[in-house]
Amino acid sequence: MTNEPVAAVLAEIDAMEGEILEALSELVRIPSITPKYPGLDYDANVGGESRCNQALGVHMRAAGCEIDLWNKEPGRDNLVGVVRGAGEGRSLILNGHVDTVPPGDPDTWMWGDPWSGRVEDGKLYGLGSVDMKAGLVAMTKAADALRRAGVTLAGDLILESVVGEETMDHTAGVSATVERGYRADAAIVTEPSGFSSAPVVAPCSPGTFWLRITVPGKATHVMVRGNLIWPGGEGERYGVNAIDKGYLIYDALRRLETEWGLHRNHPLFPPGHFTIGLNLLSGRPPGPPVPFIVPHECVMDYIVIYPPDDDPEELKAEITAYLDRTFDQDSWLAIHRPTLEWIHHWPAYDTPVDHPIVSTLSSAHSRTLGVVPKIQGFPAVDDATYLQLGGIPSISYGPGDIMVAHSVDEHVSCREVIDACKVLASTIVDWCGVA
Question: For the whole prediction, is pTM greater than 0.85?
Answer without folding.
Answer: yes
